Amino acid sequence: MGTVSRYINGYYALRYEVLERDKFTCQYCGASAPSVILEIDHVVPVVHGGADVAENLVTTCSACNKGKGDRLRLIDAPKHPTRRRPPRRLETLAESLYKEIAANGPRSAPDLAKILDRHRSAVSRAVNNDTRFVKQGLGAGGTVIFGIHP
Q: Where in the chain is the domain with CATH 1.10.10.10?
C-alpha cells in the first residue's frame, strides 16, 4: 500500500509541477483554464520511448492532446519546457483562418484544419469565438461551411 500511495502522490506532484511551470496554459494552442480541460502530454510519447519526467511533459488542452495521439509533435512543442517560446494564441489562429478564407473562399472546419495543420476542434473554437466569421451553409457530409462577413 505504501508503494502505491507514494507513486500516486509523486504522479500528482509531477503533474502539478508541469501545470504550474506552463502557467496552466495549453502549449499547443494557447488555451488556458478554466475555459478548457487541461491534461499532461508526453512530448515524446511513452510508446516511442518517452519518459515520465518534467522535461518530457507539457500542458495541453484535451482537444490538442486527443488530436496528437501517440504521434510526435515536436514542431509545436516547446524545445525546452522551462525556456519556451510564447504559446500560439487563438487570435493568431483566427487571423490565419481569416486570411485563408479571404484568399480562397469559404471552407469547412475540417478543410481549414488540414490546410493549417491544426486540430479541427481548435479551428471550430476559433471561428465560433470570432464575430468576423459567418456560417454560410452545409457542405459534403453535413459539415458547416465558414465564410467571412462582407
A: 90-148
